[in-house]
Specification:
heterodimer; A: alpha+beta; Muramoyl-pentapeptide Carboxypeptidase, domain 2; five-stranded antiparallel β-sheet; 5 helices; B: alpha+beta; globular
């Protein structure tokens, strides 16, 4: 039986298998069709119907289940919803267990949330360092400009204020007002 | 709640004692996607490669440790799956995993999800690939929430698997 305890392990393995069988297009289709439109349809419905309050309901619940030791922090205002991951439960599981069957596991988050939020009328600012730390800001699709300064939404909980957060942008994967997993501004190699 | 499993029980371990049941939604959705895009043979190939590849550390432990290792694994496995009611029986030539309530079927139904009808066959195609890699055979009877997995040595001389013995899953 495929269990839920080590889900992130076989989920990551599946990305690599799909790419070998059907190329990058099949991986993208999997994230959008299987995860966004099927598995996570409860998230889709909540966010399409309620916007940022729906994001708070969805991620507030699911992250608490996945990361009961609170390796994340949620901030929200009327115009922005933000998550800072200081210890991603999903990427952390892979790192602790030495699992690496796909070139960048972290892409799966933009792979399914990007299209989901686009359909709901939002765009994403995001950076990840492949080591279990990342941040996300979801704003209405009318938002423009670059990334908000560190600390301006999450205060001291902003992951970019960590002493070990890379200062060199080349060491990060970056997205700005994006909804497509391939819309990276910089593409650092996963460690 | 139980303590988090140790690396002696399961090949991959997390910091929490049980998984998040909502991930069963993703497994069900993955099967639907693979069946639609790659067909039944593609889906079976995925399960067999997953069994031989991702699960290779388990298979190696089974090969080295025999049936006691199989029994230990399944006890630890189901202890980490929320909502499962399972009994693991050790017999001289086999281990029987008697699933009185499948945690995945239970959660998918509770969440109002359309379960792919082939869902229960995944345990056979995946389990048989893992067993073969460990020098064992695997058979499955039942399904749709209640089933029995048998992992046996060659001495058990189990009859071939009849896929008709595996029930279709219903939502």
């Amino acid at each position: 039986m495929i269990g839920c305890y080590d889900f992130c392990g076989h989920y990551e393995w599946t990305f690599g298998w799909l790419e070998r069988v059907g190329g990058h297009a099949l991986v993208r289709d999997y994230w959008n069709e299987a995860i966004n439109h099927d598995s996570q349809r409860h998230a889709r419905d909540l966010i399409r119907n309620e916007g940022i309050p729906g994001m708070l309901k969805y991620w507030g619940h699911t992250l608490l289940e996945e990361s009961p030791d609170l390796g994340f922090h949620i901030s929200h205002r009327e115009d922005v919803f933000r998550i800072d991951f200081h210890d991603c439960p999903s990427r952390g599981f892979l790192l602790r267990n030495g699992l690496n069957n796909y070139r960048d596991y972290c892409d799966h988050c933009m792979g399914w949330t990007g299209p989901m939020l686009q359909e709901a009328g939002y765009v994403i600012d995001h950076e990840h360092n492949h080591r279990g730390q990342c941040w996300w800001e979801m704003r209405p699709a009318t938002a423009t400009g670059g990334h908000a300064p560190a600390g301006s939404v999450a205060g001291q909980k902003d992951v970019r204020l960590r002493p070990d957060w890379p200062r060199d942008p080349a060491k990060l994967d970056r997205y700005c007002k994006a909804s497509d997993p391939d819309a990276k501004l910089g593409a650092a190699s996963p460690a | 709640m139980n303590a988090a499993p140790t690396s002696g029980d399961l090949p991959y371990v997390d910091t929490k004692p049980q998984g998040s049941a909502d991930f069963y939604y993703a497994t069900n959705a993955t099967f639907r996607f693979l069946l639609r895009r790659l067909g039944r043979e593609g889906w079976i190939g995925y399960l067999q490669e997953l069994g031989r590849g991702y699960f290779s550390p388990v298979n190696e432990r089974w090969r080295a440790g025999g049936l006691p290792a199989v029994a230990r694994y399944w006890r630890a496995f189901f202890a980490a799956e929320p909502g499962s009611r399972v009994e693991v029986r050790e017999l001289p030539d086999r281990v029987e995993v008697c699933v009185h309530e499948c945690p995945a079927i239970r959660h998918l139904r509770a969440g109002g999800r359309e379960i792919v009808r082939e869902y229960c066959q995944h345990c056979y195609f995946l389990g048989a690939a893992r067993a073969e890699a460990a020098g064992l055979t695997m058979r499955l009877q039942g399904g749709n929430g209640v089933c029995r997995h048998t992992f046996a040595t060659a001495a058990a001389a189990l009859p071939p698997q009849a896929l008709g013995d595996i029930k279709e899953a219903t939502s």
